Records
---
Amino acid sequence: MNLAIVGGGAAGFFLAINVKEMLPQLEVTIFEQQRKVLAKVAISGGGRCNCTNTFADVTDLKQVYPRGANLLKRLFKQFSPSDAYRWFEAHGVPLTVQADQCVFPQAQDSHAIIDCFLHEARRHNIHIHLSTKIDDPETLLQQFDFVAVTIGGTPHGAGCVPSLFTFTIPDPSLNALQGLVADDSLVSIPSTPFRSQGPLLITHWGMSGPAILKLSSHAARHLAEHDYQSPLLVNWTGDSNADHVRQHLSLLIQQNPQKHIDNVRPYSLQTRLWTYLLDKAQLSGKRCSEIGKKGLNRLTNLLTNDTYHISGRYPHKEEFVTCGGIPLDSIDPHTLESKTHPHLFYAGEVLDIDGVTGGFNFQAAWTTAYAVAKAIAHLSLTKYNV
Ligand SMILES: Cc1cc2nc3c(=O)[nH]c(=O)nc-3n(C[C@H](O)[C@H](O)[C@H](O)COP(=O)(O)OP(=O)(O)OC[C@H]3O[C@@H](n4cnc5c(N)ncnc54)[C@H](O)[C@@H]3O)c2cc1C
């Protein structure tokens, strides 16, 4: 029996190696359109490959997989993030966990993973055809018993839009904050459920950092539909309750009546950010006793509801993925086999599954590839008695 895998990326290789471990007699061929395989793995995570995450900080998969969380919850029972961790270590790639729960090869080099995959592919005699673009994978079913499509994402393909990008905000007042990181910000798109929390970085084009990337992922479709034109609310305090923030400010002001407000920084905000907000509120240089109720309200509003206008999408060079792809209701949720084309399977980013930054996208590739490998091995053994 034989299997054709279309796409020599992360999911394609992981599928090929795992299916050969389960069923060594299966002939496996990878077709890759480029002259090189695993190109994205090489550049991933800034060349270090953030290959998974411990998920220790994840209470709900929907937080990290805006699309595909339910399917992945089911598939993690077959191959979980800890299984992936063990898999790499057992295949000679020692891993390390960062404080933010992101997992990288100990070598801090994505080639540790590429070398492992190429070594395993050679060991299992997996055939690799480079510079071979397959336009209609289902036609391969005439020559192969099984076909797996692992062609990755196509951000501009039909029904697909980019995810994981930063926001262009042409607001000259932000120039004063370039390079500043606000450690705990809450960002949201008004009149939508889309919000996220985390560090926010001010750049020369607008805003970036984990909070913005997460928001771009959750709101990927909404922003595309609005041509990347949208208001953005920034809460600089990390506290979503404006009444708490007002009380906190009011107390600070009462306790320091003679001090200049510039010297009374709430929430350990950086001096540059506090100065910027005070200028915006026209309160710079005032003593606390002069702030008054109106000043307090203005400051509370700026701290919790500072409004900007997103006017475009700026590519995030470190990682970007596709929102959209093969609809999940068109495949079997256990085997990822097409409901319309038996023996045609899908794994990796080609599916309508994508995550935020932090190793979640590779984990989706490993898990879906493993599920397909298992389904093909099981089908060969039970139905065809290989
Ligand atoms: C710059 C960057 C950095 C990233 N860093 C991280 C990270 O650190 N952690 C993380 O979790 N995720 C990261 N990602 C996302 C991650 O790389 C992808 O989610 C992952 O590679 C998806 O694996 P895949 O095998 O589905 O697709 P790919 O890795 O994209 O592989 C698909 C392969 O199929 C080939 N192909 C496409 N069409 C055809 C065709 N018609 N015929 C034959 N071959 C074809 C392509 O050339 C490619 O080699 C990053 C992405 C980018 C762009």
---
Amino acid sequence: MKYFPLGNTGLYVSQLTLGAMTFDEPDGAFAQMIGGTGQELANRMVDLALDAGVNMIDTANVYSAGVSEVMVGKALGNRRKDVLIATKVYNTFGTGMNDLGTSRLAIMREVEASLKRLNTDWIDLYQVHNFDVTTPLEETLRALDDLVRQGKVRYIGLSNFAAWQIAKADGLARLLGTERFCSVQAYYSLVGRDLEQEIIPAAMDLGLGTLIWSPLAGGFLTGKYTRDHAGEGRRANFQFPPVNLEQGYNIIDVLNEIATAHEASVAQIALAWLLHKPGVTSVIVGARKESQLVDNLKSVEIELSADEMAKLDEVSAVPPQYPHWIPPAQRGETLLSRFSDR
Ligand SMILES: NC(=O)c1ccc[n+]([C@@H]2O[C@H](COP(=O)([O-])OP(=O)(O)OC[C@H]3O[C@@H](n4cnc5c(N)ncnc54)[C@H](OP(=O)(O)O)[C@@H]3O)[C@@H](O)[C@H]2O)c1
């Protein structure tokens, strides 16, 4: 397991993070669709991940209506101080006017609830789950800054922001002198490469770390779904995250070929591809079963050749969006490479 600094911070995170979205009671609110591990399996998964060198667990206030945070806290027990906990704020299950979002009121209420559920005095990485279009960003930044000064939160991150929102948040925090976001949590997989065009370059330019969610596109990139076998019980027919099934099956074909050559699983190769990509700090692995986690943790051992990366890049390529289809030379990139050669 390798460890990388989370953006421009002194905090080192493992290249794999354990995702706790599947942690729920077997008959819990989202068990049918996403998880339902129960506490015992959650404990074993945490043990397996920590034994493999994982040093961060990602959850959210809304996962399994709070049960995921409770299970993470219980599974860690007295190892809490040795493990980084990343959780999130924005969504709630409340339906009141002031329940959703990242107003000062919501943040102060939700952080106390998360601390209690996690059974801890501090959160290592507190992430804004979505961009709040109605709350002034100044209000969100000042509330998060207060939490850092109070010692309830160590670092702050964001998730699911567009590149312009990331840049705005970073610029504003610098202007206000408040705590800056140190990480971007975003969706990235072989069937979802949109963020390569704007979000990854923005994060790299601003010095933010990148945490990758749903790296297997909710299970699609494991090889268990084929052209002939659409699979039963799969998550919402891959509408979240959305999968272009035609291109997706072509990607699975190449993954199968490379997996056979490495005597590895399709999931391991799909994760390894992400681990080889520039700008990726940590990939958040999710699992519903112990065997899946064991499989996924081995992805760090896989070295993909330049040729294998090129094959995967080619079959998974997405058309560039404007202005990225303007030839690189006209966008000044030739000049830029001349400059960086010196
Ligand atoms: N910030 C956000 O908005 C956001 C959104 C989503 C997730 N996340 C974070 O990202 C983490 C990972 O997301 P995810 O669970 O969607 O990840 P994922 O890796 O895309 O999907 C994980 C699912 O794929 C299947 N699977 C995993 N490994 C497998 C293997 N080796 N063989 C066969 N099937 C396998 C399992 O589902 P089945 O058994 O049901 O097929 C598992 O629950 C979450 O826990 C959460 O922390 C964040």
